[in-house]
Please model this.
Amino acid sequence: MAESAAQQPVIIKKVNKGGHGGHHGGAWKIAYADFVTAMMAFFLLLWLLNSVTQEQLEGISNYFAPVTTSTATSGSGDILGGKTITEEGAAQSSTSRDAVTVDLPPPKAGTGGDTPDSESTDESDSDNVSEEALKQREEEQFEEAKEELEETIAGIPQMKQLVESLMIDNTQEGLRIQLVDQDGLAMFPSGSAEMFLHTKRLLELVSKVILKMPQQLSISGHTDAVPFVSDTGYSNWELSADRANSARRELQHFDVPEKRIARVVGKSDTEPFLPDDPKNARNRRLSIVLLRGTGEDNPAANIPESQPTGLGSKDEVLPGLNEIRRRQLQDQAPATLEVPDATITTPVAPSKPSTSFTLELQPRMEAQ
Model:
């Protein structure tokens, strides 16, 4: 037994654990974590820059930028510099932050700190608002007058046939009321300025609306393109003017003041209602316009308009031009031309040369 045990071989088992693995271990994980952290910070910075406004970015930039830099040295830092604690830069603290002083203009009394430019801007804005309000009020008056006139004529059974003869529209010139002829229903007899009875009744309704409005009136007569010439030369021009004057007299008969009538004109066939059919009966009409922005009691008439500059005005087109003109007028004197038997005096007008002259004959006394 002892010999068999001595002859049995001894087996030694060695395990190789790979010596190179200990050098790398988990170091790459730390580097990767740092890389991921840096990328997260980078993308977070991009998100913050995209989410803030330009004003906030400028505020952050101004916060970190140095505002002022003092070039003076303190007395405690330079003993031989002759500095004292009462001089600027002597008592400076390393923990304190430099202050920034901004000089603001003092507020003016009664203005609340506003500048004159802002005052003039506010005044101009208020003027524009008031002008717009007045114009809007006038537009509302026109709309009310139009609705009232249409409702009035529609509510009278006897006037139903004349509904198509009354046309009301709001134009750039003002509220226009037109009395238009229809086929078989004219406002005037052919070639005459004496209106029919139904035309007078229609003008009576129009006058009631006109009396409630402050604007001035413009009355014009229109004819068609059918030639009308009498032996005396009476044509469509005279006929349209006479019809316009006939309407004026009728409105005055219904208590419309004469001072409210601005103009009365005859336009013949120059402004047809139907340009494609100038001989149509609807081209014969009367036009009564309530002129926009006129009338003594109209608030919109008081809107100031820009006045052109010229001689004697406050603002000159060219500086010094008015003074030069004034001196020329002072230097000018009436020119006198002597002739043997008469004296011709030509007065010099201050603004423009005169085309007339005064001829005064003065007999000369000679010794006999």
Summary: Residues 328-361 form one domain. The longest helix spans residues 116-154. Confidence is low (pLDDT under 50) at residues 107-116, 305-317, 335-368.
